[in-house]
Amino acid sequence: MFGTVIAYYAPLYMRGVGLSSAQVGWLGSLTLAFALVFQAVAAPITNRVGRKRTTLIGDLVSWTIPMFVWAFSRSFESFLVAAVLSASGRIVMVSWSLLVIEDVESSKRAKVFGILNMIVAGCGLLTPLVGYFITQYGVVPVLRIFYALGGVGMTVMFIWRNAITQETVSGQAAMTEHGDMHPWQSLRYTVQQVAGLHRHPGLSGVMVFYVLTIFIEQMSLFQILFLGETLRFGAGALSLVPVAGAVVAVVMYRLVRRLSATPAERTLVLARLLGLGGAVLLLLIPAGNLWVLLLAVSVLAAATFLTQTYRDAVLFSRLPKTGGADLYSAVQTLCLLCSIPAAGLAGLIFSAQPRLLFIVIAGLNLALLLLAVLLARSQKAA
Fold it and tell me: What values do phi and psi take at 20, rounded to 5?
């Protein structure tokens, strides 16, 4: 609940504290750079400690502590400290994904990812309430309180979730296998998996697709600033954007259930058609026109939901049952490495010409659509 709202309003909060657009962008890039380091050790830690325990410890470090740092941040340096801690969440991304999906049948994995994405999007229903308080009392004081409450609330959730989950079968086997390994041996094993990614059929194309989607997501960090500062939408209108995303998520989840027999690669083509359409609509929003704004962000939300759901399903379908943690972490590592410049580059472009940034994003969406078509053709040929 807290994470969705915080991620949405974070750029406004940083600007409210006094950071420039360029500093906001550099924080995004530096977060990815540190995330790359944590990603490199994600698989060894997950294999040695276990999916369940790694998730609990990692969540406390990457969410609970940063929440309280953000609540009292007043400078670029304090945000950087929080960014380093938050970047350790890349370890949890591996452990949590495996904890959720490893014991699930392949045919049902898209549905599981759909449920998780719907829950995340549904948390956006809280944004109008936060937006109301922001209108009344300002961005900074309201979000400081919200960060502090988030630190407490998320900690309770992490402990409760850990109590009701069980280690996966593959996780238990990995703990046994890696328990006697020296940490450096585990890390070297992960590096070998990265070097051998090209040996797995069809994985390279999915990896390029994955890289580009993350690159676009990082550049889209400035969407809320574009809507607020360039198109002059107020806090009330901006608070409705995640609500539209939550409604769209419910609709898209129903679509996912209907598309269970459709190859995931073909659904990615539909998702990226929506992504390109939403990116173009975003450029055509008349200043202050709420209905066109909601249409554009709804189309983008549909594209994001379908992409994240089926992108991960396609990736996991190409990973072998043994060494899944290492290969998944390897893909994430390479994606992070290629995406580090995205937020910093976006910050520089936005500072110079805000609209130009979203023209670039529209062009990248076109490239992503072409990649989706190639993936669908390769799946059909296979």
Answer: -85, 170
